[in-house]
Amino acid sequence: MRLRFAPSPTGAIHIGSVRTILYNYLFARQRGGVLILRIEDTDQDRLVAGAIDSIYDGLHWVGISWNEGPHEGGPHAPYVQSERLALYQEHAQELIDKGAAYYCFCSKERLAALRAEQEARHEITRYDRHCRNIPPAEAAERAKAEPHVIRLKVPDEGVLSIEDLVHGHIEWQANTLEDQVLLKSDGFPTYHLAVVVDDHVMGITHIMRGEEWVASVPKHLLIYRAFGWEAPPMAHFPSVLGPDGKRLSKRHGSTAVSQFRDDGYLPEALINYLALLGWSPGTEDEIFSMDDLIRVWKIEQVQSAGGKWDKDRLDYFNGVWIRKLSVDELVRRLEPFVPAEWDRAVLKKIAPHIQERLKTLKDAKDQIRFLFTDDIGYESKLLIPKKSDQITTAEALAHSRAVLAEVEPFTSALIRPALESLAEQLSWSRGDLNGAIRMAITGRKVGPPLYESLEVLGKEKSLKRIEKAQELLVGGPD
RNA sequence: GGCCCGUUCGUCUAGUGGCCUAGGAUGCAGCCCUCUCAAGGCUGAGAUCAGCGGUUCGAAUCCGCUACGGGCUACCA
User: pLDDT (tens digit, 9 = 90+) per residue, A114-129?
Assistant: First the structure.
């Protein structure tokens, strides 16, 4: 069993492609199959520098690996189509020799004019087979000097069909097809020729790709037939859609995998979410690791309709996976998201207290900044609880400072009762007292639990910040 | 225009003729817990299963038509 992923190096790997690749991966891994990464770069105009590296980065980051590919090598190397041109040219020639394909010398101008005429007459736009009847010997002679493409001779009638693993039976009438180009004038194959030749030569046993390819299946079937090969089973997975219902693309915002990494998403969460976009276990379970997926994913449960990208749901899965991390692991994942100069020992102490408050790893920085800098500017009026005033708040803070100064050791377990009884003494609610102190030490209204925050901040800094808050209040309004 | 695919709560989905007065999740609202925010627990609103016709004792589930959405229709993939 051999499966392939065949991205084009037209940029960073796209989230929709990852979903398709994931399904290929799961299918192969659960059956002990071999996975192949093949780069389909037959369009020289659309190449983007560094794209292959970013495909490697993106796929490795989400935890997808493969057996044969451009860097891995393998029995069918090279795995980059632009390095296999001779193979396609030989195969195109074979079809010419068999009489299954022909040289076409029509210029792009003639083709454009033809199309314009057909459109004007409201006819179907397709190639008119102008060069199909040039005697083979004459055509071969002209081909030595004139620019040309090679086209497939499409039959006038007949039915082409597949039993798609997702959609079931699909069929087409051959007479709705045109004589497609197999080899372009620059000597490069079209996608259609290259994919059929490579899938056959590389021994691909299952073709699984996005739904946008179903329309070209009959073309491929005809090419298989022309070579006398058998087409392998196919599955066409539904598209990942943007909020407007159209296939997800760059214009819907960030769709590159690397963007999700940079935005603080866990690969576990992305994979979990993506797996469920188009597939369902049929049970009410929904939290799955890659290993779980390899066990439970079934192609029979793949949805036939496209699914819209839902960021809220991704965020939910990200939270779930963040909470599943051990503290050490969380600290490790947080590493790229906090400044290098922040003390990792402090980070580790606060990590368990922000863990359940993180939607993404990126959120951590703002929540714990107060531990690493004294620059926590805030407006003094924010210290004052509703129903209270400047003087009373200043007094409460003074008392807090005094009480906290007595706490030894300065741990949350001892801070708690101290502040609780102070609140009672002052006839303040804990919420109001803690809110004022929280503002004083963090400069924010919300944050990790107060007692733990004080402990991690340390006695000295905590007292100093409370003093500063008092001064702010006594000094009058900003 | 032609060919093909699709259509269950806003969103992701369960559902393969009776278990469906349609289940779960997310999001939303409320309550509980609570030092804030989260997390967690509970409750609620939210889908005439695109519409119509047919098959059947019985249809979200099978068939047909229509509508709507999407993909393809290149010497792009």
Answer: 999 998 888 889 999 9
Q: Which of residues 360-389 of A touch strand B (CB under 7 A)?
A: none
Scanning every strand, the nucleotide with its C1' closest to A445's CA turns out to be: B36
Q: Are A456 and A351 in contact (CB under 8 A)?
A: no
Query: Start-end ranges of CATH 1.10.10.350 in chain A?
Result: 380-474
CATH 3.40.50.620, domain A84-237, yes or no: yes
CATH 3.75.10.10 at A380-474, yes or no? no
Widest CA span of chain A, in angstroms? Answer: 106
Cβ of A298 less than 7 A from strand B: no
| Cα–Cα nearest to A323, from A366, A287, A271, A296 | A287
Q: Tell whether ipTM is more than 0.90.
A: yes
- Using DSSP, state whether A222 is helix, strand or coil: helix
- What gap in Å lies between CA A221 and CA A152, rounded to an integer? 12
Nucleotide at minimal C1' distance from the A448 CA: B37
**pLDDT tens profile A80-105:** 999 999 999 999 999 999 999 999 99
Give the CA A68 to C1' B46 distance in Å: 49
Segment A239-293, tens digit of pLDDT: 999 999 999 988 888 789 999 999 999 999 999 999 999 999 999 999 999 999 9
* Alpha-carbon span A156 to A136, nearest angstrom: 20
